[in-house]
Amino acid sequence: MESLFAQLVVLESSLVLIFGLVLLWRRRVPAYVSAFTWQSLVLGAVALTVGWFGRERELYFIGGLLVLVKGVAIPRLLGRMERRFASEREIAPYVNTATSLLVAGLLVLFGYAIMRPVVAASDLPTRAGMPLAMGLVLVSLFVVVSRKKALTQVVGFLMLENGIALLAILGTYGIPLIVELGVFLDALMGFLVMQIFVYRIHSTFETIDVDQLDRLRH
Amino acid sequence: MARGALALLQGLLVLALAPGVVGLVRWLKARLQNRRGAPAWQPYFELRKLFGKEVVVSENASWLFRAAPYVVFVSTAAAALLVPVLAVPLPIDAVGDLLVVVYLLLLGTVFLALAGLDPGSAFGGMGSSREMTVAALAEPTVALAIFALALSAGSTNLGQIVARTMSDPAAALSPGHLLAFAALFVVMIAETGRMPVDNPATHLELTMIHEAMVLEYSGRYLALIEWAAALKLLVFFALLGNLFVPWGVAVVLTPAALALALASLVGKLAVLAVAVALLETRVAKLRLFRVPELLSASFVLALLAVTSSFLSR
Amino acid sequence: MTLDTPLAAGLAMIAAYLAGAAGAVILPGSRAGRVVAAAGAIAGATAGVVLAAGVLATGHAFALHVPALLPTGGGLALRLDGLGAFFLALVGVGAAPAALFGVGYSAGYAGRYSLRWLGAMLNVFLLAMSLVTLADNVLTFVLLWEAMSLASYFLVMTEHEQPDTVAAGAWYLAMTHVGLALILVAFVLLMPPGAGSAFADLRARAIALSPAIRNVVFVLAVVGFGSKAGLVPLHVWLPRAHPAAPSHVSALMSGVMVKLGVYGMLRFALDLLGVGPAWWGALLIGLGAASALIGILYALMEDDLKRLLAYSTVENVGLITIGVGAGLLFASLREETSAALALAAALYHALNHTVFKSLLFLGAGSVVHATGRRDMNRLGGLIRRLPWTAACFLVGSLAIAGLPPLNGFVSEWLLFQSLLPAIGSPAPLVAPVMTLAVGALALTAGLAAAGFVKAFGITFLAVPRSPEAEHAHEAPATMRAAMAFLAVGCGVLGVAALTVLPRLAALLAGYAGLAAAPPVLTLGPSLALPDGFGSMSPPLLGLGLALGAAGVWLAVRLGAARGLRVGATWGCGRIGQTPRMEYTSTSYAEPLRRVFAEVYRPTEDLTIDVHPESRYFVQSIAYRSEIVPWFERYVYGPLVARVTGWAARTRALQSGSVHAYLAYLVIALLVLLAISLAWND
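^ Those are the sequences you sent over. The predicted structure of the assembly is below.
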C-alpha cells in the first residue's frame, strides 16, 4: 500500500514535470495550452491521490478546484488569447531547443541535489516526488527567462505556480485550505494582470515579442 | 546444455522472425492508410529474390564495400543472439550484457556508414554523415536508459534484468521503468530509421538517411543489409518487450512454458508493430535538424528515469 | 629469476638508448644512422618491458640509488614499483613500433633535416620517459621530466623552417613550463623542511600536512600534470605540436608522453598524498568529462588528419581521467572494490590508447609519406593505393571508436561498468555526478564513432581528390611492420582482457584507498563484476563474430547467386562521377556542426557575386567558415595579448649595454640579499 502510494506519487510527479518540458520542445501556443491543461489535470490527480492515501478530505476539494480553475478555466482564457494572436509562435528563443532541453535535464538533477537533505529528513511517503516538483519550478523559471513571447512566459509562470502547488501538496499534504485558496486567487489575479499586459503590448507593438520592449527606452 | 541449445534455437527463431516483423509493420501501415498492402510475408519473397540476383558494384568501391554487408549482418545477429527472447537465464548472458548489445549494433552502423562513403557518391556520403550524427546523439540516451534499468535490477546482464522485474511486478510500473521505456522507444525510432526521424519508404534520395547510405547495394549484399535492418528492429522490439514487460518469458524449460513464451513474444511484437505503424501514420517526418531536439528530449526522459530511480529507492 | 635480472635489464635499457643516441650521432651516412637509432630504441624498449614485467610478475619493487650522481639533491634515486612498472611497460609498447616506423619514415628527411639530431633526440626522449617512471626523489623526477620535455620539444622542431612548427614549439614550450612550475611548487609544499626529498619522505610528510595544504598540492599537481596530459583547458598545445612533429614522434607524444601526465597525477593521488576528500575525484571526473567532450567535438571539425588525431588524444585522456577520478572518488568513500575497478579500467584504457593512437598516428604518417598532405579534403581513395596502411588504420579506427571485439571496446565497457556501481553509493552528490559522467562518456563514444568513420572514410575511401592522392604509393616494409604490430596488438589486447585486467587490479593493490588484495574480476571465460553486476566475454565475443562471419560468408557463397558486375556509381541519372561530387571532411561534419553550433560558434562569410543584369544569375559564390575554439578566443587570446604587452613594455630595459645588464644583476643580488636578511629575522 505504502509503496504503491509512493510509486503513484512519483509517477504523477514525473508526468507533471514532463508536461512542463513540453514547453521547451514544442513551438506552438496550442501545444503549450494543452500541455498546461494536462499538467493541471495530473496535478489534480496528485491532490486526489494524496487525499485518498493520506486521508486528507480537504485535498479532494483542492483537487477539484485545481481541475476546475487550472484544468478548465485558465486554458479557455489562454485559448482565447492564442486565437487573438494566432500567427505568433516562438520562433527563435534565446536558447535553442536542444540546449534548452539539456539545461532542463541539468536543472532537474540540480533540483534533485538541493532537495536531497529535505527528502532525507522527511519520512512522508510522498517525499520522493518533491525533487521533481523542485525540478519543475526551476524549469519553469528557465522558460520564463529564455523565451521571448509573452504568451509563452505566461504559461511558464502558470507552470511555476503548478510546481509550487505540487511541492506544497507533497511536502505538507496540502497547506491549510485558506492559504491554498489565497495562493489560488493570487495566481488567478496574476494571470489576469498578465493577460491585460499582453493585450497592451500587442496593441502597442503589433507583436507580443517581449524583445520589442526595449524600444520603450527610445 | 539444454539452455545452451535453446540459446542457439532462439537465435535461429529471431533470424527467421525478423523479416516478418518488418512485413507486419508495413502491412499494418498500409491498412491504416486505407491501402490493401502487401502481405506480412512479402519481405521473405524479397529476400529470396535478392539472394538470387547478381550484384552490381560501383567501380570506385573497394573490398570494404563488399565486406561490410557481412559485418553488418553478423554483428546485428550477434546482438540478436544476446537479447532474451524466449527464456532466461541462458548461458549466453555471460558473453555479453546490454552494453555489448548496444556496441554490437554500433559496429554494424559504423560499417554501413563506411560502405556508404566508399562508392564516392554524394548520396552515400550524405546518408553516412546523417546516420552517424543520429547514432552519436542517440548514444547518451541509450546509456542512461541502461543506467536506469541497471539501477533497479542491480545488473546490466539481460537475463538478470528480466528476472528481477519478473520477481517484483511493481517495479515494472515504477516511473523509472516507464520513463526509460519511453526514452528507449524514441531511440528505437531513431536507430531503426523509422518516422519521424527517417522515412523507410522514401524514394527521394535527398530526404533519406538509411536508404541513402545503402543506395549502392544490390543483390545478395542488399539482402544481407535488409535482413540485418529487420533484425535490428526485432532486437529493439525484443528489448522493449522483454526487459520492460517480462511476463511470458520462460524461466523453466518445459514445453508449456516455452509455448507460452513464444505466444507472448509474438503478442508483444504485434503490439509494438501496431504502435510503430500508428506512429508512422500519424506523424510527419521531422526536418533533419529537428532530430537532435527529439533526441535531446529522449535524453531528458532518460535522465528523468535515472533521477526517479534514485528517488524511489 | 635471479635477483640481478632487474638490475641487468635496467642497465641494459639505459645502455641501449644511450648507444642508439650515440650511434645516430657518430655513424656516417643516413641509412646506418637511422637503423642504429631505431635498433637502440627497440632494444631499450624491450629491456624496459622486461624490467617492468619482472617487477609486475614478482611484485617486488626494483630500486637503484646512485648518490654520486646529483649529489646535492639526494643522489640519483630510481625505484620501480607496480604503478611505475605499468607506465614503463607502456613506454616500451609505444616506443618499439614508433622507432621501427621511423627507419622508413625519416628516410624522406635525408638531406633536408639533421637525421643525427633526430635519431639522438628520439633515444634521449625515450630514455627520459622510461626513467621518469622510476624516479624516486624530487630532483631526479624533475630533471628527467624536464629532459623529456626538452627532448620532445626538439623533436617537434624537426621541420624547423615551417612557420607553423615554430609557433607550435612556442606553445608547447610555454605550456610545458607552466606545468613544470606548478609541479615544482607542489613538490616544494610536500617536501619536509630540512629533511630529504626522497618520495618516502614526502609520503611521510603528507600525512602530517593540513588538509588545506594537501588540497593545494593536489590541485597544483592536477593542473601541472594536466598540462602535460592535455586536459581541457590546458590542451591547446596538443593539436599544434603533435601534427608538427614527425609522425612517429607524434605517435610517441600522443600515445605515450601524455600518459606520463596521468602517471604524475596517479603518483601524487595514489601514492604521495594518500586518500583525499571526495571532491578530488569529482574534480577529475569533471575535468575528464569536459576534456572528453571538447576533445572529440573539435576532432570532428578538423580537416587535418593529424590534428584530428591530436584532438582525439585530448578526448581519450579525458576518458582516462574520468576513470581515475571515479577511482579516487570511490577510494575516498572507502568503496575499495569499485575504486580498484575504476582505476584498473583507466589504466587499461591508457594502455589501449597507447596502442591504437600510436597505430593511427603511424597510419597518418604513412599517408603523409605517400602524399605529402594532411588535409583530408585533398585525400581519398587511398584504400586501393595503400592497402596495408588502410587495413591497419581501419583496425585502429574501430578500436578507438570502442567497437567490439577490439581493445578500445573492452576498456570503454569497463569504464562504463566502473561508473555504474556508484548507484549503490549512499554518499550525496555521487549519483548526479556519475549520471552526468555516464551521459558524457556515452556521447563521447558516439561522437568518436562518427569522428573515426570520417577520419577513415574520407581519407581512404571513394575517389582521390588531388593528384598527390591519385599517385600515392604504399609505405616501405619497416613502416608496414610497425603498423601491423600495433594492429595485431589492438586485437590481442581486446581478447586478452581476461589476463590483462586481473594483473592491472593486482598492481594497484595496496595503494592509498585500495585493498591489499585485488578484487576478483573474472569468472570462467568472462570478465565479471562483483555482485553479478555485469559480465562480458571478449574472447567468446571475438570468436563468435569471427565464426559467424565465416559461416554467413560460406552460406551466402553456397546458397546465393554469384554474379557480380562492375558499374558506375548511381548519380540520379547523371553520367560521370568526379571527385568534386563526393562528401568531404567538411561536409561530413556539417550536421554535427549545426547541432553543436552553440559550442563551435563558427564564423561564416558568404559572398555571392551576381550578374549585373539580374540577381538571379550568380557568377561566383565564395564561402568561408572558420571555427576558433572559444577557450582560445576568450582565454588564451587575451592572455597572449597581455603577455606580449608586458613583454613590449620591458623592452625599455633592454639597452644593449653590458654595463646596464651588470647593473641589473647587481641590483637583483642586493634585493635578494635584503629579502633573505628580512626573512631570517
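Chain A has a mean pLDDT of 78. DSSP finds seven helices and no strands in chain A.

Shout if you want it in another format.
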